[in-house]
Design a protein that fits this description.
Layout (H helix, E strand, L loop, with lengths): L1 E5 H6 L1 H11 L2 E6 L2 E6 L2 H30 L20
Parallel strand pairs: 1-2
Antiparallel strand pairs: 2-3
């Protein structure tokens, strides 16, 4: 569950908001002019988010290295398998 609160009100209720996050399992989104500014999440939620981010980074790195290996194995006719021939200038 996510709860939104303006930054001015959040200043006055910070201790209560921390308790809602830690003991109530809530996520609090602090807004300014109606737009999300920051979020208060539990330390356990933050660890899960960091773990997801690291896993995604590992997947991207693995995919990029796989693409690089596949490109290196292609036949040696040229980068795109295209051959060309130089015919000299017209009229020579």
């Amino acid at each position: 569950m996510s709860y939104e609160i303006p930054v001015t009100q959040a200043r006055a209720e910070l201790a209560d908001l921390i308790n809602r996050v830690v003991y109530g399992g809530e996520r609090v989104v602090v807004t300014r002019h109606g737009k999300p500014l920051v979020a208060l999440v539990s330390a356990a939620d933050l660890e899960r988010l960091d773990g997801l981010s690291e896993a995604a980074d590992d997947q991207v790195a693995s995919a990029v290295s796989t693409v690089g290996e596949a490109a290196a194995v292609r036949p040696g006719r040229g980068s795109f398998g295209i051959t060309a021939e130089h015919r000299g200038a017209a009229g020579s």
